[in-house]
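INTERNAL TRANSFER SHEET
From: sequence group
To: structure group
Subject: Cytochrome bc1 complex Rieske iron-sulfur subunit

Please process the attached sequence and return the structure record in the designated field. Keep the field labels unchanged so the import script can parse them.
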Amino acid sequence: MSESGSHNDVSENLPGEHGARGSEPAVKSDPFANPGLPPHEYRRQDIDERSAKHSERIVAGLYTLSMLGTIAFIACFVIFDIDKYVYIFPFGHVSALNFSLGLTLSVALLGIGVGSVHWARTLMSDEEIVDERHRADADDELRENIRQQWITGAKESGFGRRRLIRSTLYGALALVPLSSIVILRDLGPLPRNSLAHTLWSKGKVLINSNTNMPLRPEDVAVGSLTFGQPQGLSEADEDFQDQIAKSAVMIVRLKPEDIQDKREADWGHEGIVVFSKICTHVGCPISLYEQQTHHVLCPCHQSTFDLSDGARVIFGPAGHPLPQLRIGVNADGNLVALGDFSSPVGPAYWERP
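Return from structure group:
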């Protein structure tokens, strides 16, 4: 009897058809049912204007910080020399200019970004909205709906009535672009200062770039092309690349009767003429010489110059002849420069006459 009674007690507690007498089978819930949106929770700023004003001041402060960051960026650009290095833990010795520019620009951009995020999270409307999927193309009704949403969103953002945020945002956005404008000045020295003058001056001996020996008139054969550089320039120099890029020359010896330009003949020596090796298009080094035509060709964009006629451009995109270097012979019998180039070397620029 006790075992039978025990069995009946257990069977009454089982669900379904083995459950208690007279009970209905259990119903399983739909696991894919739409749970809907949870009740909207209002933020402190939605119900307390003092909290809203506090958030507004935070946003305005971040935008003001961005403006200060931009001003500091410009100040650092002016104050720090490009060669100044400082020790910053844990980075070690870094460029003071680069470090300060990166730090101040980060503050300027971060101020705008964090301020905008804080504005959106604390003051703009955060009500949950359900929007059914629609086709990719928009009809007139959808366009009007989007327009109304834009108007509503602009109104709920408080952009129109929160003048403090609006004014500081305008200031931050207006100042940040100044950083990129100032950076343009750091692309390099002004063309007037860097291209108008080179290492060539009166009395500088022409050195053969291959042998590093002074060039004498008898070393230059008719029809030959020799590359040269000014005396005193060495590959060990820290600014060698900068200087050779402006001072590199090509020396050609022509028959005097083949020279058509009178000034070219006067600036040469016994048919030896010297021109800048730097193309006046984009600054590529010229190295291709046609002995029979006296033409030199730039390998980059095929600008062609006639060395028998003042190195004028006869083909290609170059806009100016190659500058000529006036030469003579010193007491030792070496070829020397009698001054700098006849015009600024390299590509044309806005200050070039």
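Handover comment: The chain has a mean pLDDT of 85. The two ends are 122 Å apart (CA to CA).
Transfer complete.
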